[in-house]
Amino acid sequence: MVARRLSLILPLALLPALLGCHSAPVQPPLSPAALGAVVEHPGAPREALARAIDDLFADSASGETRAVLILRDGHIVAERYAEGYGPNTRFIGWSMSKSVTAMVVGLLVSDGRLRLDEPAPIPAWQRPGDPRGEITIRDLMQMRSGLHHRESTEPPYNADTARMLFLDGRDDMAAYAEAQPLEDEPGSTWRYSTATSVILADIATRALTDSHDPEARRRAMGDYLRTRLIEPAGLSSMVAEYDAAGTMAGGSMIHATLRDWAHFGELLRNQGMVQGKQILPREWIGFMASPSPTNPGYGAQLWLNRPQIDGTKEMFPDRGPPGLFACVGHLGQYILVWPEGHLTVVRLGKTPDPQRPALLAHLADIVNLFSGE
Q1: Per-residue model confidence as pLDDT tens digits over 21-51
Q2: Rounded to whole angstroms, how far apart are CA atoms 54 and 342?
Q3: Which residues on neighbouring strands pair with residue 81, listed in sequence order?
Q4: Least buried of 16, 202, 313, 367, by fewest C-beta within 10 Å?
Q5: What 8-state DSSP symbol labels residue 102?
Q6: CATH class of the domain whose range is 90-254
Q7: CA 173: distance to chain centroid?
Q8: pLDDT for 118-168, tens place per residue?
């Protein structure tokens, strides 16, 4: 009788253990290429990091990942490219370009050629009675100029961004952007605007030259960008596009290799310093990474890992560290910078907006491996 009871009880007692054996699916082994993309001691669990990067490349639900690079304390700990891309490929930054333009403005403020809290020196706004004359460079930097702008619409070609970059505004982007009327009082309302960054690029160019000649304008901006930012920061592959009027397309059309986008992120992480030399004032980087008064999730041409005032999610405030900030570009370009974690993560690729949540989940997984979560 006792033996019979034991024969019934033992299988039941073993059931939880048996079920536990099947609760976690066995993960397939990593390919040599996936593991080889991560150094031996990356500052996070190596195999978990390699798998997180592999998942990002493999998951079609998060779009197409073309390149990933991770720097810890300034050292490359992971680097991987999709087929057809490599270390010499220049990738368009899209709206990551805005952060480059912000640094040019910061250099000119440091030089005393521009003043953050004085009216933006746009001639068309200085006519008597024009309310746009109250817009400051600070307002433009923090996306609160009050100017009319529609960043995206359906159909896409009706959006101001598309019209400025590719249609009726393409030959003189700054003129298109600066001709827009006020929609709100300057400084009162946050409105994301690629046109705003083009205005900043125009203001920067006007500070460098009085010439209206397109070639002279291109040369003035190109020389300043090269000698004050690109060469000192070691961004040798970085190139900018210009419109027919000689204005840098500073809201979207700056190109660089994966490594140079990572070096740009490091310049932000190190508060404007490169190899012991202060390229930009620390205070300017602090300003860029401080919340705009009208949107706690945005700084000055940088995104912050905080909830956005319009409810959108550009980053992952529910999972990532609060000190994280980012340059973010159209179709899922990301430079994630976490100063406290000594970390810079770059992801380049093509992710339409509906797939952005899946991409953000993968990026959060990667960042959190370095925070021990």
Answers
A1: 455 567 778 888 889 999 999 999 999 999 9
A2: 23
A3: 67
A4: 16
A5: H
A6: alpha beta
A7: 22
A8: 999 999 999 999 999 999 999 999 999 999 999 998 898 899 999 999 999
- Chain-centroid distance of CA 132 in Å reads 28
Asked if omega into 155 is within 30° of 0 (cis), the reply is yes
DSSP 295: B
Which H or E run includes 80? Answer: strand 75-81
* Average pLDDT by stretches of 10, the chain with 373 residues: 45 47 67 90 97 97 98 98 98 98 98 97 95 98 97 91 96 98 97 98 98 98 98 98 98 98 98 96 98 97 96 93 97 98 98 97 98 67
- Residue listed under structure tokens 């810079």: 344
Q: For the chain, where do the domains classified as CATH 3.40.710.10 start and end?
A: 29-88+305-373, 90-254
Is 251 within 8 Å of 194 (Cβ atoms)?
yes
- Give the integer Cα–Cα distance in Å for 290 and 306: 11
Stretch (H or E) spanning 361: helix 356-369
**The amino acid at 143:** M
Instruction: Give start and end residues of each alpha helix (H) in 179-275.
Output: 194-208, 214-225, 231-233, 258-269
3-state secondary structure of 111: helix
Here the tokens at position 226 are 């090269």
29-88+305-373 under CATH 3.40.710.10, yes or no: yes
Nearest-angstrom CA–CA distance, 73 and 299: 24
How far, in Å, CA of 331 to CA of 351, rounded? 5
**The whole model's pTM is what?**
0.92
Beta carbons within 8 Å of 231's beta carbon, 6+ residues apart: none
